Structures are given as structure tokens and as C-alpha cells.
Amino acid sequence: MKLLMLCREPNLYSCRRLKMTAENAGHKMDILDPNRFLLKIQENRPHFALYYQPNQGTPYLLPDYDAVIPRFGTQSTKMGCSVLTHLAAKNIPCLNNPASFALARDKWLSLQALAAANIAVPVTVFAGQDFQAGSAVEKVSSPTILKTLNGSQGIGVILADRSQSAVSIMETLTLSHIPVLLQDFIGEAGASDIRCFVIGDKVVAAMQRSGQKGEFRANCHRGGITQQITLSDDEKLIAVRAAQALGLDVAGVDLIQSKKGLLVLEVNASPGLEMIEKTSGIDVATQMIAYLEKKIAGL
Ligand SMILES: Nc1ncnc2c1ncn2[C@@H]1O[C@H](COP(=O)(O)OP(=O)(O)O)[C@@H](O)[C@H]1O
Ligand SMILES: [Mg+2]
User: Fold this and answer.
1) What pLDDT, in 10s, does the model give residues 84-135?
2) What tens digit of pLDDT does each residue of 176-224 get?
3) Is residue 113 part of a domain?
4) Could you say which residues bind Mn(2+) 2 here?
5) 7 shares its domain with 100
């Protein structure tokens, strides 16, 4: 098969692993930067054309691919999802599909979708820019978490110890036209959460993450320490339901243990492979490529 990965940094562990694994399975894989595409909608068939601007040389018409794996970061969500939509319109299987990918990249819309599917999430509010910050902050508990809608790797997640701090941070962000959601802080989790790697209807690997000393964010990119973990059936079920609620084939589901029970913090559409493979000892890349092969075959 001829596979395409959409990614700006081909040297990242996840990209290298996926490319190597695909090639070992006898496939060819090109890695292209979504920001180097030109997308065209035209009258004549094929209605959807794509051109690519290589590093050196002139742009060329994109050849056909059998499937595409989106692995672009949050800085490229808009163009990346546009490229993905164009490829999906040409009936090229996408791991994940463009609508689900875009939904997962918006923290508020995805929490709404999770709640609509009866999946427990932390109490969260999203206020319009003209809603009084003080009244918005009163709707959640203190200390309060504030999150920008499309942050990642822990960036854009803020802990305000006092209500007054939450109000001033919210006012500052709103004035800067940065939409933000407010959320109950789950302090009882002790800066730990669980990352579940879901492929299809299975959790293929999981790990516990704990924030380093003095840090409430458990993200590996923020220095979080990882540990092997065996999930209960209940935890597995919630993770798979969360991925399915957003329509994702591949997802990194973050779970947090609160005093009210297990909650879904967020669902990532392009979860990293490095720490989950190294911590769990499971070859996640091979399972992703095997799943993609089945998807291409229409199984
Ligand atoms: N409501 C919360 N209560 C306690 N900790 C939280 C909460 N929300 C996020 N965190 C911590 O911050 C980390 C990053 O938050 P998350 O919503 O997953 O955003 P990101 O996309 O940046 O990973 C989580 O892994 C968790 O450790
Ligand atoms: Mg996260």
C-alpha cells in the first residue's frame, strides 16, 4: 500500500515508528507537511485536487494514496483538517476521519459530545465574552482550572488557587480574544491521571502519569513520570466509549480519578507513541498499521 502521513516533524518518535513499522509490513509511506499543500475544488472530475510544494523545486499534483494518517500538531489543525477533508472527499481512508479529528481538537466541543454520550466529565463552563467573569467563576469550584480550547501537552491549562485569580486570568484572556473554559480542579487525583491508547474498540496500552513535584499537570511534556498500570474493565470501557463518542479510530483518552468516580478529562486524536510504548512495552505502532490495513480492506 502507498500511505501518507500528514506531519510537520518527520523526526518525532511517533512518526519514525509509524513509518518504520509500515515499511516493515511492506508498505510505502510518504510524510508530508499539511502547510505545504494547495487544495483546489474544481468543476471537472476529480473535483478535489491537491498540490504539494516540496522543500525544493516546483509544486506537483499529489499522486494517489491508499490511506492517510493525520499526525499534525495543534498549530496546524486548521490546514491539516482541510487537507484531510479533501483526501476523505476522494474516498481515501483516514485514521482518524477529519470531522472527528477537528472535534477532538476543540476541548469544549468535545466535552459537549462526551457529555451528550453520557460520559462523566469534570464540571465545566464556557462563557461568552460578555458574560461577567465573576459570575462564571462562581459556577465552578475553587481552586479552578482554566483551559484554552485548543492547547496541548499541558500548555494552556492553568490552575488558579483562588477565585479572584481565576477571575483576573479569565478577564485577561477574554480581553486578548483567547476563549477559555473553566473547570472544577480534581485535587484528590494528586496530580495523576491515566492515559489510555485506544485503537478501534480496544484499549491497546495504558499508563499512569504523575506530575513532577510542584506540578499539577501529568503530561509527559511537562516532566510527568509514567508507570505501568493494569486497567479495570470499567476503565477500559469508559476509554473506548469516549473514543467512540467522538468517532475516533485512534485516540489517547485521559482519565482522572475524582471522589465522584472516574472522569474523562480529554480525548486526543493524535496521541504520542513514545512514552506509552516505552512504559507499557507494547508495540502500539504495529497495532495502528494493522488496524489501518483492515480499514483499507473495508473489514
Ligand atoms: N480538571 C482538572 N483537575 C485536575 N487536573 C487537571 C484537570 N484538567 C487537567 N488537569 C491536568 O492537566 C493535564 C493537561 O490537561 P488536559 O486537559 O489533558 O490538556 P492537554 O491537552 O494540554 O493535555 C492533565 O493531564 C491533568 O494532569
Ligand atoms: Mg491531555
Assistant:
1) 999 999 999 999 999 999 999 999 999 999 999 999 999 999 999 999 999 9
2) 999 999 999 999 999 999 999 999 999 999 999 999 999 999 999 999 9
3) no
4) 266, 268
5) yes
| 122 Cβ below 6 A of ligand 1 | yes
Joined together, the cell numbers standing for residue 264 give 474523562
Q: Which residues are annotated as a binding site for Mn(2+)?
A: 254, 266, 268
67-70 and 192-199 strand pairing: unpaired
264 close to ligand 1 (CB < 6 Angstrom): no
Both 68 and 91 in one domain: the answer is yes
Kind of pairing between the strands at 37-41 and 48-52? antiparallel
User: Ligand 1 centroid vs 83 CA: distance in angstroms?
Assistant: 29
β-strand pairing of 2-6 with 28-32? parallel
What CATH number should be reported for the domain holding residue 31?
A: 3.40.50.20
Residue 280 CA, ligand 1 centroid: distance in Å:
21
Cβ 145 under 6 angstroms from ligand 1: yes
Structural domain of residue 247, as residue ranges?
189-296
Q: Count of residues for the chain?
A: 299
